[in-house]
Amino acid sequence: MYTKEQAAQLRQSFWTTFGQYMAPVLSAEGVKPNWLNYNTRQKHVYFRMKADKKEASIGIELTHPDIEIQAIFFEQFQALKVVLQEYTGEEWIWTLHTPDETGKTISRIYTQISPVNIFNRDDWPALISFFKPRLISLDQFWNDAQYSFEELR
Fold first, then answer.
1. What does each C-alpha distance from 104 to 99, 101, 125 come to in angstroms?
2. Cβ distance 15 to 36 under 8 Å?
3. Is 7 left (phi over 0), alpha (psi -120 to 50) or beta?
4. How far is CA 91 from CA 20, 38, 83, 88, in A?
5. How far is CA 113 from CA 108, 121, 135, 136, in A?
6. Does some domain include residue 131?
7. How far is CA 38 from CA 34, 79, 138, in A?
8. Residue 27 in domain
9. Which band of pLDDT confidence, cut at 50, 70 and 90, is reported for residue 1?
């Protein structure tokens, strides 16, 4: 078992390693994005990567505090579901209005793998291989899809 400090250090080390691995990859727009803190330029729309000792997930999180507006965003994404599938090459999980780890109501469109353990360096290649193509696919999808959300700004 790890202390809180060791766990935090391992987590940080993984994300630093992943960030370095992604650094040479340009976005669909041909610029160098901050892959770890991807800017969708749409308030309350985030690309999130998560990993713990059991599983890892990547997806889109909708965090608008007004759940009715959050639902409108979710519906707009549903209208683009086929496009997202074309970019990712897989079916993702769609969850409207679910609590996050702090109890706040969010909506998620995501995929996950298990078993993987961010604290096991032997799992890092699998985690990187999971995150990298999906993050690039999300970027490509968003490069085309973001304009569908202009009216919701």
1. 5, 8, 32
2. yes
3. alpha
4. 28, 22, 11, 8
5. 16, 16, 14, 17
6. yes
7. 5, 22, 10
8. no
9. confident
The first and second tokens of residue 7, run together, are 């766990």
Q: With beta carbons less than 8 A apart as the criterion, state whether 77 and 109 touch.
A: yes
pTM, to two decimals:
0.94
Look over the chain and give the mean of its residue pLDDT values, rounded to a whole number.
96
Would residue 59 count as lying in a domain?
yes
Domain that holds residue 82: 43-112+126-153
What are 30's two structure tokens? 């041909």
> 18: closest CA among 109, 126, 90, 101?
126
What's the total number of domains in the chain?
1
Q: Is residue 90 situated within a structural domain?
A: yes
Question: Which tens digit of pLDDT belongs to each residue from 105-116?
Answer: 999 999 999 999
Check the CA dihedral 81-84-90-96 and report its sign.
negative
Residue 146 has pLDDT above 90, yes or no: yes
